[in-house]
Amino acid sequence: MYQLISPQTIFQYFGDDDKEMLQEMIQIILDSNLKDLKNMDELYATQDWAQIKRRCHKAKPSLSYIGAIQTRKILESIEGDLENSHQHFNELLHDIGIIEKELHTFLDSL
Question: Count of CB atoms within 10 A of residue 94's CB?
Fold first, then answer.
């Protein structure tokens, strides 16, 4: 059912006894980390490598919390070769679209 996220991992990190807190944590990831990553086009346009690296580094734990290990590896690839990472950024955008849909499906199932 889920291609990139893992409900088991989400429950492992956040627990399954407080649904409201779980929903809030997922919403923060959607509104903060994923949004910041999606909006890196402008940083690529200005070649702001330091800010790209900061955003990727900041988002890695959140992707681990939701079980999106494949996407976390893309962030690591971007961090590892910033100036040649635009192709990885396109892969990241693709994954983020899937993750957003899956997280909304997950939230709806709670």
Answer: 12
CB 98 within 8 A of CB 41: no
- pLDDT per position as a tens digit, 47-106: 999 999 999 999 999 999 999 999 999 999 999 999 999 999 999 999 999 999 999 999
φ, ψ of residue 33 to 5 degrees: the values are -60, -50
pLDDT of amino acid 65: 98
Phi/psi of residue 6, nearest 5 degrees: -130, 105
Residue with tokens 């959607």: 30
CB 22 within 8 A of CB 16: yes
What is the number of residues in the chain?
A: 110
Please name the residue that has the structure tokens 């957003």.
Answer: 100
- Contact, 106 vs 26, CB < 8 A? yes
Could you give the CA distance from residue 65 to residue 81 in angstroms, rounded to a whole number? Answer: 24
Burial class (CB in 10 A: 0-12, 13-18, 19+), 66: buried
